[in-house]
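Many introductory courses stop at the sequence. We go one step further.
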Amino acid sequence: MQNYRTAIVGMVLLCLFGCFDINFVRNIIGDALEPIENPDVSSVASANTRFGFKLLHDLQERDPGGNIFISPLSISIALTMTYNGAVGETERAMAEVLGIDALDLSTINRSNKALRESLETPDPKVEISIANSIWYRQGITFNPDFLERNRSFFGAVVAALDFSAPQSTEIINEWVDTNTNGKIEKIVDRIDPQTLLFLINAIYFKGNWQDEFDPSRTRQGIFHLSNGSEKRVQMMRREGEYPYLRGENFEAASLRYGDGQMLMYIFLPDRNSNLNKFMRNLNEANWEDWLSQFQDRRQEMVLPRFKLEYEANLNDTLEALGMGIAFGGGADFSGMGPNLFISEVRHKTFVEVNEEGTEAAAVTAVVGVKSLPPAFRVDRPFFFVIYDADTETILFMGTVTEPM
């Protein structure tokens, strides 16, 4: 990825928030970082972009008629924290899915730290916070190097909890609530007796438009749904200079937040096309090409005021992308300590767009469960004996070919 601002736009689109209404594409991104001096940050940024597109395509195929709002950066950070404990084939599979297979672990960790610090660069009208935590079952010993890497590079809070106590769930959810500014209240409903740890990322974003919409100009308008029906929604209106792109079968525009470093990009398929056709052409190469073609144009911006909440279990999606080994008994997370596999990757998001700007939050939890012992599954004809070990006497024996 090239070391200049427009390249970083591509990174933050999928790193920070990818928002897709099946009828109307909304991508909340961050541009505005200064030119990158460290090429490693660009490598991680590019990997996050590719990973985000893959996630989005799979989720949209699974729910082609619904709104989708994800934070690829949140998911990537939580999984990269987990990756620090992966070994062997599990490590290789996760690296390939995350797009970091060409990078060594030290580079991955240092680059993620630099990326997080860059994204949190202050802007008076934009707030971004990225928080990480590891909560593990009290009494279980984890690899100190694994925990220290997550503390040092991801700023993770690391704490042991008595998972059998009800307040453990409350403590974790309170952390989530605090670090999403109350927009996502909880990520854990209950803690399974086999669960040994949670690796959690939380992202909060609040940005005021560089030029806010006048609420007095907001009024009802018609939104055309993909099934041909119409819905009345509150439409915000404003005239001004906006970056604009006329593409093949779509048009796009962006709105700046704060000092202009953070932007929202909106891609709108033509009326004779549709979102599904647009999505088929959405990939990293096209994305970077499109970004280089935006030019300011004076126009009226008519944008729906909306609020979305989204929740997904990402197991099936991550398995489909090639990370299936991490979810079963064949997983190797011995770099953490105990025998573990990932039982669940939970993802929750929130976004609200109004006349003032945008507020959004995301939480991703990777739930690590203790590996279960191999199963002795009696599911076919068998022979059995009732035996007294003291006298070495067989009392009964028999075969069962059809349990009654």
